[in-house]
């Protein structure tokens, strides 16, 4: 039986988390998660871009690329859509919160090449989701990515008061924490199975 949009939404957050289960979008995840406020900002930006581009990518794929037999242009079309929405997010954040814009630095425009977003859009096509399933998967994947980066940022901020062995400071301890978080999310597997 095909899972409904609500099941796909929660599965994308917990059981099939795009970051902790599929390991997509690790670069910005590890770099920005040093600060909680920046992590929330980037998480919201990724969620917005993933949700909106999922909808647009589905419509373009179903009503333009497939009927015209131009599926070979899927990667280029999806990246152009992602880049357009990232530009929109960049403009809005720069106007609303210049401090957050500076804190996110190069990682905000790099959402364009965040493999979590392109990977999610390709999952929509591979899994042959309909419109509502695509929207649910996009929003759930964005929230799942945000959940992971905010959780890691919170843990890393608490780690400032801990004695970490010198050899594990920085990316070393972040990768160990990410591995432990992934193991925790594996505990959810099987609750809501999707492909």
Write up what this structure looks like.
This protein has helices spanning 5-15, 26-32, 36-65, 74-96, 98-104, 115-126, 131-159, 171-186. It contains eight helices and no strands. Helix 1 packs parallel to helix 7 (131-159) and helix 4 (74-96) packs across helix 6 (115-126). 69% of the residues lie in helices and 0% in strands.
Features:
195 residues
Task: Provide a short characterization of the protein structure.
The chain has 195 residues and is an all-alpha fold.
- Bin the helical content: 55-70%
Secondary structural class: mainly alpha
Rg (CA only): 17 Å
What are the segments in which pLDDT stays under 50 over at least 5 consecutive residues? none
Shape: globular
Q: What's the helix count?
A: 8
User: Which percent band covers the strand fraction?
Assistant: under 5%
- Mean pLDDT, to the nearest integer, reads 88
Report how far the terminal alpha carbons are from each other.
Answer: 12 Å
Order of helices and strands: HHHHHHHH
The largest sheet, given as strand count, sense and whether it forms a barrel, is: none
Compute the number of strand runs.
0
Produce the secondary structure layout.
Elements: H1 5-15, H2 26-32, H3 36-65, H4 74-96, H5 98-104, H6 115-126, H7 131-159, H8 171-186
Helix pairs in contact: 1-7, 3-4, 3-6, 3-7, 4-5, 4-6, 6-7, 7-8
